[in-house]
Recover the amino acids of this structure.
């Protein structure tokens, strides 16, 4: 798809060529939808492409508390109660802070590696991606994270009207977290959002279509370093209203 000349293109690591720490080599990106903290590198076409990353169920998974039960010894001793498992901390969507950068980088890398296997091997180290998040993503984007206690499960970054990143840890896909992050991004830009996704990213395309995004342009791949055809998607309030806070 032909993209506006003002839009920066992604590299193989999902790190914007026009705004990232200089490492001497160019890197492409897809904002596809995203997944688990690990060590991989991504590009920036929204993988939920704006994480543009996955088909996500429209609901959040409730936390579970293991039911306590009793056991009886073979000697006929009185039953004793098994210790109950503490409930999981609640899921929250909050603004990213500088100390989140290593976890955000790990999510970015792992998600792209798992959800976009058609991309070239990742070349950036975790330290390089962490530096990019700290020096480029957080200063230039409105960035929110999905957290359960101290654990980060996903993040979304909006720059202007562009949903530039939306990635989840691979092990929490299809639990409603991607939908919650997208809802937060739409509340930040209630007049509309734009994103880019690889045509090969079928899960991300389905996810965004479910949430009211429509194709507005196509690209034969000459506009990105991966040389992969892309779609430009747009959401406007007329297509799907912004859900209230706290709903997927």
């Amino acid at each position: 798809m032909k993209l506006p000349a003002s839009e920066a293109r992604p590299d193989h690591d999902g790190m914007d060529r026009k705004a990232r720490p200089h490492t001497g080599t160019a890197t492409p990106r897809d904002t596809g939808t995203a997944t688990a903290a690990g060590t991989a590198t991504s590009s920036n076409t929204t993988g939920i492409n704006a994480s543009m990353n996955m088909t996500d169920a429209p609901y959040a998974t409730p936390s579970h508390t293991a039911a306590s039960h009793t056991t009886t010894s073979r000697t006929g001793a009185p039953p004793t109660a098994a210790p109950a498992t503490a409930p999981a901390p609640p899921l929250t969507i909050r603004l990213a802070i500088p100390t989140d950068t290593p976890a955000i980088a790990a999510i970015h890398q792992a998600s792209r590696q798992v959800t976009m296997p058609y991309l070239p091997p990742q070349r950036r180290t975790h330290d390089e991606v962490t530096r990019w998040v700290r020096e480029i993503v957080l200063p230039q984007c409105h960035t929110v994270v999905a957290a359960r206690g101290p654990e980060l499960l996903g993040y979304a970054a909006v720059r202007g009207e562009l949903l530039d990143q939306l990635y989840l840890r691979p092990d929490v896909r299809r639990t409603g977290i991607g939908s919650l992050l997208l809802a937060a991004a739409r509340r930040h830009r209630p007049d509309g959002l734009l994103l880019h996704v690889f045509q090969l990213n079928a899960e991300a395309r389905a996810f965004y279509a479910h949430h009211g995004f429509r194709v507005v342009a196509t690209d034969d791949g000459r506009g990105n370093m991966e040389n992969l055809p892309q779609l430009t998607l747009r959401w406007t309030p007329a297509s799907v209203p912004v859900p209230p806070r706290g709903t997927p």
About this structure: The chain has a mean pLDDT of 76. Residues 63 and 144 are 21 Å apart (CA to CA). Helices lie at 101-115, 126-140, 177-188, 202-210. DSSP finds four helices and nine strands in the chain.
